[in-house]
Amino acid sequence: MASFNTITNIPEALLETIDTFNFSKMSEIQDKAINPILEGKDILAQSKTGSGKTLAFGIPAIMRTDMSENKPQTIIITPTRELADQIAVELRKVAAYKANLKILTLYGGVPLRTQATSLEKGAHILIGTPGRLQDHLAKGTLELHSIKTLVLDEADKMLDMGFYDEIVKIGSNMPRAKQTLLFSATFPEKIEKLAKALLKQPLTIKVDTIQEINKIDEIVYETSDKFKTLTALIQSYKPESLLVFCNTKAEVTSLADTLHRRGHSVIDLHGDLDQRERNEAVLAFSNGSKRILVATDVASRGLDIKDIELVINYDLPWDKEVYTHRIGRTGRADATGTALSLYGPKDSAKCAYITSQARTADMKDLRVDATFKMISSYDTLCINGGKKTKLRAGDILGTLCKEIGLEPKMIGKINITDTKSYVALHHTVVDKVFKALKNTKIKKKKYVAWILD
């Protein structure tokens, strides 16, 4: 693939920013889409999660933002809050070279009034879910007359959720001359219908999704005792990180509890959790303080979970597309990964599409270490201050090392949100830090801290 310097008229400052991400070259979707987008073409693109599509539409959106206009110029519609947040984080990193470019997320779980106030102050790029965007349009708190580009990300997922009419209606509030970019993992008939309704003579792009999937080693295991088999797989593969999929919230909770009682470092993720709980579950897994994430399909799309070594389908999905998205959580970008699926006698109908592309293995061939447990060396400390109080990772790191006396090797990943900061700390020092922060200031201010369960 080509390097980023082949992008038409890309500013040197943006190239320098991209260099900090350690991307040596563009992904296939970026290579095929960015320059046509900059030329103003409508795009109909098939590209799966993890292929680099966020930068494919994000780089042109940022490059073309007119900073002299404090009005929405690009709107990105996504199926979930999690995906909206993920896109916002990635675009803010890319936009660091462009001072004062404002990116605003609009989704449920946050008061409408708070979002309306932010809209009044102005934003250049909006990222939102269909339902919340409709709410703002109905209340007159959102105007889209200045939109130049509409992006539909994971459009097939939005249509699966029944948002066809909402998407078309939102689009009707924008100028007819706008550019529309539609990204979808699959191209079912309903996507073609939506494309006909919104796109004008689009350039169709299909990346080699089969080649991407082939980077994942897919294996199926027949079993009459799924938990026993799961335990054997954990003790044989010994992964650094493991994502386990179940079909129901009840199964997720039950399995996570059982794994916890067996001594594993585990956390669960499902739709009954509120937004804070979901965010913290993903964060604890991504920073390594929890090594196993047991989840429903809420985690198969749109969550920023990188470098997952192993995915296990504890319950098989009925839908092949869901299966594809599940296993796509491993083997992302240029990495390889492993996906294991368990099936019993009653699963023969569901597993046909899996066995057609995956190899079957025998449990007898596993080398099981019965003493192995997935235990984390880290805990997560939460501090009640973040971007809004001007806290930076360097401020926290300086306090931990200079004031409290920690060695840098005891400190893991630091994540800072608008209102909170999360620090992965080696379990041998987390209590020391917790106690020390009661009497230690960060940037001349005391903060309340607590340890995430």
Brief rundown of the structure:
With 453 residues, the protein is α/β, with parallel strands linked by helices.
Properties at a glance:
453 residues, alpha/beta, Rossmann fold, Alpha-Beta Plaits, 3 domains, 7-stranded parallel β-sheet, 18 strands, 36% helix
Structural commentary:
This protein is α/β, with parallel strands linked by helices. It has 3 domains: 4-207, 3-Layer(aba) Sandwich (Rossmann fold); 211-365, P-loop containing nucleotide triphosphate hydrolases (Rossmann fold); 378-451, Alpha-Beta Plaits. The chain is 36% helix and 19% strand. It has 17 helices and 18 strands. It has helices at residues 12-19, 28-38, 53-63, 81-94, 112-121, 130-139, 155-160, 164-172, 189-198, 209-213, 226-237, 249-261, 275-286, 320-327, 348-355, 393-403, 430-436, and strands at residues 43-46, 74-77, 103-106, 125-128, 149-152, 179-184, 203-206, 216-222, 242-245, 266-269, 292-295, 310-313, 337-343, 359-361, 378-383, 411-416, 421-426, 449-451. The strands form 3 sheets. A 7-stranded parallel β-sheet has the order 3-4-2-5-6-1-7, with helices on both faces. Strands 10-11-9-12-13-8-14 form a 7-stranded parallel β-sheet, with helices on both faces. Strands 16-17-15-18 form a 4-stranded antiparallel β-sheet, covered by helices on one side. A hairpin with a 4-residue loop joins strand 16 and strand 17 (421-426). Helix 2 packs parallel to helix 3 and helix 3 crosses helix 4 (81-94). It is globular and about 65 Å long. The two termini are 44 Å apart. The model has no long low-confidence stretch (mean pLDDT 90).
